[in-house]
């Protein structure tokens, strides 16, 4: 019995050591980015229509605003993306007789979720949330303004060939690192983060600064796709103060 207890104790100690090492490895993998001249904060689509009361409200979407405001003060280089659709955009369910919002259709560039009309240019819903306070943001990237193609990513439209210009801007600015927050995690944030990683940027998503739509498991898929490209999911506490 004594021998069994000693063996079990050694096993517990060895297991604890393995768990400790694994925890240390995870902590290193989740370590936050440096914030310097080569780091850009990208705030994705923090707009009225994506917040409660908007035409395509993300649940608790307005909760990201305070997080964005608090963390943006740490960054010298801030970019905003803005969904900016013409009336009758091809991604709107209203443009497809007999179709309802959130149904899927096939577009020339591939599958497309049909959305409620939202973020039509010049409308109150297309404006940034009135409490968003980032006066030092230098650039606004508008996307989705071509009637025939949607655009989730801040880098490339949904045809995956038409650039928005953000990639060129960041290269000119010497950016090597991107930190993202905004709406919605599983669509525009995820697509933007994935394209940032594909562009060679060290890419982070601040989880508290995002909210999701989560259509049919889209949130889990988005995190898995981001993880596969090396996008790091971090907490706000992991950002340098």
Topology:
Layout: H1 2-29, E1 39-44, H2 63-72, E2 78-83, E3 104-107, E4 110-113, E5 139-143, H3 166-173, E6 177-183, H4 185-198, E7 202-211, H5 218-228, E8 232-234
Parallel strand pairs: 1-2, 1-6, 2-5, 6-7, 7-8
Antiparallel strand pairs: 3-4
Helix pairs in contact: 4-5
Question: In words, what does this structure look like?
Answer:
The chain is an alpha/beta fold and 241 residues long. The protein has five helices and eight strands; from the N terminus they run H-E-H-E-E-E-E-H-E-H-E-H-E. It has helices at residues 2-29, 63-72, 166-173, 185-198, 218-228, and strands spanning 39-44, 78-83, 104-107, 110-113, 139-143, 177-183, 202-211, 232-234. It is globular and about 50 Å long.
Q: Briefly, what is this?
A:
By secondary structure, the protein is an alpha/beta fold.
Mean pLDDT: 89
Q: Which spans have pLDDT < 50 for at least 5 consecutive residues?
A: 1-29
* Rg (C-alpha, Å): 21 Å
Gross morphology is globular
Q: Helix and strand string, N-terminal first?
A: HEHEEEEHEHEHE
**What is the top-level CATH class of the largest domain?**
Alpha Beta
Q: What's the CATH H-level homologous superfamily of the largest domain?
A: Isochorismatase-like
Major beta sheet summary: 6 strands, parallel
Structural class: alpha/beta
Query: How many domains make up the 3D coordinates?
Result: 2
Residue share in β-strands = 15-25%
CATH topology of the largest domain: Rossmann fold
The number of helical segments is 5
The tally of strands reads 8
First and last CA, distance: 54 Å
Instruction: Characterize the quaternary organization of these chains.
Output: single chain
What's the architecture of the largest domain in CATH terms?
A: 3-Layer(aba) Sandwich
